[in-house]
Amino acid sequence: MKQPSSDRFARGIFTASLALIALVYGVVSSWWGWFPAPQLGEAHRTFLDVKQNWRNDIGLEPTRHLVAPNGPGTTDPDRGYERRPGTERAPGYILIAGLSDDQDTSVFAVRLMDTSGNEVHRWPIYYENFDPDTPPQNVMLHGMEVFEDGSVVVTFDVGNAIARVDQCGETMWSVRGGFHHSITRDGSGGIWTWLGEDMVRLDAATGEQTFALNLRNDVIAANNGEQRAIFDIRVRMPDDADSSITYLDDPFHPNDVEMLRPALADAFPMFEPGDLMFSLREPNLVAVVDPQTGLLKWWQHGPWFKQHDPDFEPDGTITVFDNATGATRSRILRIDPNDRRISVDFAGTEAEPFYTWRRGKHQTLPNGNLLLTEAEHGRLLEVSAEGDVVWTHHMVWDADSNLIVTEARHVPEAFFTNGTPTCATELAER
């Protein structure tokens, strides 16, 4: 029997109404983060990640660690170390942290390079020795700190451990937990790093935690929450007056913490020895905090964008690795915390490109040069105080790809107490 036209019309109106309601709810749920928008978004991101990195995750190819080369000579399959004539290189060794280049997708390494760009020692880093529950091919060696006895401490992205290994890669101690990003020594037997949203100090000899300062509870909430506005940038506003503000995903992304050592304190009269400087990537914030009270003594949002690795410098300034994400040219900025004057120590150019949209480190060397870690292109550079490139080093994987470099560190020639670190296997190969 043929349906009356009025019934067909009513059904059409009902169907269209449902479609309109679904459309409106979809827009609103996406805006406010209601079900199922977050779940669908996460599922989509997971799908894209698996599609791009499935070869990595089953151990065939380390796609999570491979990046396109950058700078002069990128098309040369034999690219590697290049020394520029007419420049002065800082004497000493360079330590480089990342994935091993022996075609094993789950073995990390810290390499020690001499002034000719030759590898003279390698620390093998076996993540499964510290955390047997996480597939090693899915994590990334990130933070690295070196000691005079030839040992190193390491942390990992997407990992769950911090560890100290001797010069042959044997575990001296390891601690489970969400430690991440940079590691810095405090000059008095401790190391500082991030554990989740805690700035923590560990005893370098044992790995025991001796201090923690929580970002939300001890800093943002300090002094009855009067510092909240400095941090509350990535938030979701309430839909009524009785609801509280909630943070968006990864609102801070802390990536560095270091203590002001007594040896540098005279250069920073507005601070005290033991004050902590930290970097929060998402709000573009660099700040110095009193660890005992949680009160900020100095802070600034930008002009750096998605920055990393602020350092106290001996002249009383602070240098910052400005990723300048999206601008295609990263910079090293220098700020005077007294008057907030900004200068540029180094920036990429068309002739000498320098850019990493995330990660990245810098170090001021004894002769005034800068050591730069261009993480997302797998390249190291040393540049003079005048901005001239002294040398570059591509961490080559194959003709088309470099390995991500997460940390590079310069140490003087006489840094190691017992000379250049060696192991029995290296001695046998020589």
UniProtKB/TrEMBL annotation:
It comes from Roseobacter sinensis. InterPro entries: Arylsulfate_ST (IPR053143), ASST-like (IPR039535). Keywords: Membrane, Transmembrane, Transmembrane helix. Residues 64-85 are annotated as: Disordered. The chain crosses the membrane at residues 12-34. It holds the Pfam family Arylsulfotran_2. SUPFAM superfamilies: NHL repeat. Residues 76-85 have a biased composition (Basic and acidic residues). This is Arylsulfotransferase family protein. It comes from the Bacteria.
